Amino acid sequence: MARAVRQRNAAAVWEDACWARAALATGSWVVLAPVAVPLRARPQPRARATGYVLLPGARFDTAREVLALAATDTRGRRTPT
Questions:
Q1: pTM of the shown model
Q2: What are the helix (H) ranges across 1-81?
Q3: Residue 28 CB: number of other CB atoms within 10 A?
Q4: Exposure winner among 22, 47, 75, 77, fewest CB in 10 A?
Q5: pLDDT tens profile 12-24
Q6: What is the per-residue pLDDT across 3-58, written as a single tens digit (0 to 9) for each?
Q7: CB distance 68 to 43 below 8 Å
């Protein structure tokens, strides 16, 4: 049980660290390999695709950022949106 709690806590800290920088007004970003990021018209999972893709290794600066958070249930699992 203690191992499961430590793993859960470590996962929560990692998730927080990943999103910590996303709250800044602007930032510099790099797309990690082997991920390609399809761009959407709005920051929502079901928004229409623009047809543009950020390829692995792409570097870009943002002028404005909008966070789109996924809904989670009481156990922290993502729910369909």
A1: 0.45
A2: 2-20
A3: 9
A4: 75
A5: 777 777 666 666 6
A6: 888 888 888 777 777 666 666 666 788 888 888 888 888 877 788 989 999 899 89
A7: yes
